[in-house]
Amino acid sequence: MNKIFEVPLYAYQSNPDQSAPAPVRHKVIVVGAGPVGLAAAIDLAQQGVEVVVLDDNDKVSFGSRAICFAKRPLEILDRLGCGQPMVDKGVLWNKGKVFFDDRKVYEFDLQPEAGDQRPAFINLQQYYLEEYLVDRIRDLQAEGAPIEIRGRNKVEAVGTHPDHVRLEVETPEGSYIVEADWVIACDGANSPMRTMMGKDFVGRVFEDNFLIADVRMEADFPTERWFWFDPPFNKGQSALLHKQPDGVWRIDLQLGWDIDKEREKRPENVIPRLKAMLGDDVKFELEWVSIYTFQCRRMEQFRHGRVIFAGDSAHQVSPFGARGANSGLQDTDNLCWKLKMVLDGTAPESLLDSYDVERIHGADENILNSTRSTDFITPKSEMSCIMRDAVLDLSEHYDFARPMVNSGRLSTPCTYDGSPLNSADGLNGPATTRPGSACPDAPLGDGYLLPKLADRFTLLTIDTDAPDQMDVDGVQVTRLALSVKDDPSLALKRRYLGDATSAVYLIRPDQHVAARRDTFEENAFRQAVRRATGKE
Amino acid sequence: MADLILSPNFDHADDFYADLLDAHEGLEKQASDALNARLILVLANHIGDNGVLRQALHAAALEQE
Asked: What angle do CA A490, A496, A501 make, to 5 degrees?
């Protein structure tokens, strides 16, 4: 067993709040030290917002869990100072094969798009991400950033008030009361915070069980995603094989609904299944086995007064498509700059309602995609099985059927179309950078575009003029002046200009486009800044 | 949006009908169902237009307007 699971990463220590004569009030408390909670805390702390993370555990989460990280979340992790270790350690992949019955029906190659610093996907065990995030918190602490992480601090009760939240926290040394201006609940799909607050969590339950196994083996399977529909070694079901670092492979086997979970989890039952899949002569060692069922559901609202839900506590999807952790990171990316502005008094509290609008839009997109994948992978009626098999049979012979094969639509960045923060599109430019879009990257000489767009409002000008600095009711907007000549690969031109000869983009601190026009027009952009900060 | 053609449009309707039955000749129910499913998908791709396909689904369901 990997020892990373056993060593406390943020061991319990007494904190001054426990002996304070009156409850101490913090700016922000994050409940849950999974990837989403840790990312939220780092995002706030590196912008100078005081934050405390509470977690009932003190170690990384057990087992590999989320293993597939997409480009946009890697770009978000770059902004948080954790992208490079992820990419250095992760397994890069872009090829996949699809099998049906006893034969390969087709293979695909998701060539990375030219112009991006980050790959389309990497595979990496969730515990590494958690470790890198905690390392980053330690670095921030060493720099004097106002961030603290408290292990074995379990929230037992929540009291919501108009201007603060009160939490009762249980520790090995007894309980204490602590307060915060804002609480971000990142305590997972079974969120105790959500239960304590009596909030809904409705959606569709999928009646299926999946065995998930991390297997350590020295095998020469290529670094590809292999997906089987109805394979001989798991008749009537599906299977997935995907590589992780350290010689660990993720195997998912669909088991069906009427099974005895405890029995199926025992090594004497798991090992024969894996042997049937991998072949008798492959030597392997089980690292982690779990059985999961899943639901596709979300809270009706993510913000409840001063408690804001993010990640799996707010929405849950099937694992097909890697949309869990990937969407949770997009939640905090969306939330933290807004919360910072509200705390600073540079934006009204209502700006936070746009978090609900934008991330519910994201959650619905993820639920739709993962529900469709699940319906394809696990057909629920005779006719849906006949149609699914027809698609697979056709895909072996004809290209046209391949886009219909759905073994998971992998996470792509969410575009906030229709967001109240967007201004009307004023550029005859590419659709990929319309208002609401996450900015695509572009190479610029010795670096990349995205790091230059982080953590502040930016006025990106391409081959046109604008003021270097604007102050719009206390919101600072800084210009980044570029020319298409700065990027000989022409990704900047292709992605930001299209047929236009110049462009001005207003870009939010989370690197989403708020407004764009062909040239700078002061009134239009001042209005766009007000709109993007919830003032219009 | 293009309209689904619901008036006679075949070059030779009887010939198509005979070809369709020939294709199913001698097949077990399961193989026939699979053939029909593949045929639907091949034709749907040829049409391509989701608006026309939705009209076709509606027409095939024999729902009252």
From this structure: 80
Chain B residues in contact with A401 by the CB 8 A cut-off are: 41, 45
Whole-angstrom Cα distance, residue A330 to residue A310? 9
Structure tokens at A336: 């933290």
User: Looking at residue A227, what DSSP letter applies?
Assistant: E
Q: Within 10 A of A323 (CB to CB), how many other CB atoms are there?
A: 31
- Give me the domains of chain A, ranges plus CATH numbers: 3-13+24-90+122-201+299-367 (3.50.50.60), 431-532 (3.40.30.120)
At CB < 8 A and 24+ separation, what contacts does A158-167 make? Answer: A158/A183, A158/A193, A158/A196, A158/A197, A158/A307, A160/A197, A160/A304, A160/A305, A160/A306, A160/A307, A161/A306, A162/A305, A162/A306, A163/A306, A164/A25, A164/A306, A165/A29, A165/A305, A165/A306, A165/A307, A166/A23, A167/A29, A167/A31, A167/A54
Three-class SS state of A374: helix
Q: What is the pLDDT along chain A (536 residues), one digit of tens a residue?
A: 566 778 899 999 999 999 999 999 999 999 999 999 999 999 999 999 999 999 999 998 888 888 999 999 999 999 999 999 999 999 999 899 999 999 999 998 887 778 899 998 999 999 999 999 999 999 999 999 999 999 999 999 999 999 999 999 999 999 999 999 999 999 999 999 999 999 989 888 888 899 999 999 987 888 899 999 999 999 999 999 999 999 999 999 999 888 999 999 999 999 999 999 998 888 999 999 999 888 889 999 999 999 999 999 999 988 888 888 999 999 999 999 999 999 999 999 999 999 999 999 999 999 999 999 999 999 989 999 999 999 999 999 999 999 999 998 888 889 999 999 999 999 999 999 999 999 999 999 889 999 999 899 999 999 999 999 999 999 999 999 999 999 999 999 999 999 999 999 999 999 999 999 999 999 999 999 999 999 98
Residues in chain B closer than 8 A to A404 (CB atoms): 41
Rounded CA gap, A143 and A124, in Å? 28
Contact A76, A366 (CB under 8 A): no
Contact B37 A386 (CB under 8 A): yes
Between B34, B40, B45, which is nearest A389 by CB? B34
Q: What is the CA radius of gyration of chain A?
A: 24
Per-position DSSP letters for A141-165, written without gaps between them:
HHTT-SEEEETT-EEEEEEE-SS-E
Whether B41 and A389 lie within 8 Å, measured CB to CB: no
A302 close to A194: Cβ distance less than 8 angstroms:
no
Q: Report CA-CA distances (Å) from A127 to A42, A77, A305, A309.
A: 17, 15, 32, 22
Mutate to test the interface with B, among A105, A386, A397 (most CBs of B within 10 A): A386
Q: What is the ipTM of this complex?
A: 0.96
How big, in percent rounded to 5, are the helix, strand and coil portions of chain A? 35, 30, 40
- pTM higher than 0.80: yes
